[in-house]
Amino acid sequence: MSSHVQSPPQEAPGIVDVEQAEAALVEHYPRLVRLAYLVLPPSLGRNRRVLTAHALTQRALPRSRRSADEADLPVQRGRKGDRQDGPGYAYVRQRVVRTALEAGQPLRRAALPKRSQLPPLLPQVWGLRLFPRSGGADELALDQRLSALSGPARAAYVLRGLERLPDADVRGVLTAAGVDDPRAALTEADGVEAAYALLASPEFDPCSLQARPTDLMRRRQHMKAAGVALAAALVCGALLGLPGDGWAPDGAAAPAYAQNPAGQAALDPEQLTKVGASEWKRSARTDFSVWPARGELVDDKALLRRALAVWARPGETVQVSATPGTAAGAPPGPAQLLFAGEVDAARVVLLHDGLRIVRYAEPKDGTSGAALDFARVDGANTGESGAVIVNRVDGNVRYLTAPWVRKAAVRDLVKGTSGAATALRVNRSGVTAPFVSPAQASSCTSWNTLELRDNSGTRRLSSDLGELVPAHLTAGRPQNPREATVADWSATACSLSAARSHGVRAVNAWAYARQLLPEANGLAQWVCTRADTWRGGGSRILAQFRPPGSAAAAVAAKAEDSAACGGREPVVLAGVRWKSRAGTWYLLGGGSKEVASVTPSGGTKVPGNTLAAPVERGARTGLTGQLADGTKVSTLR
Question: Which residue in 101, 516, 570, 627 has a CA-CA distance of 20 to 30 Å to 246?
Answer without folding.
Answer: 101
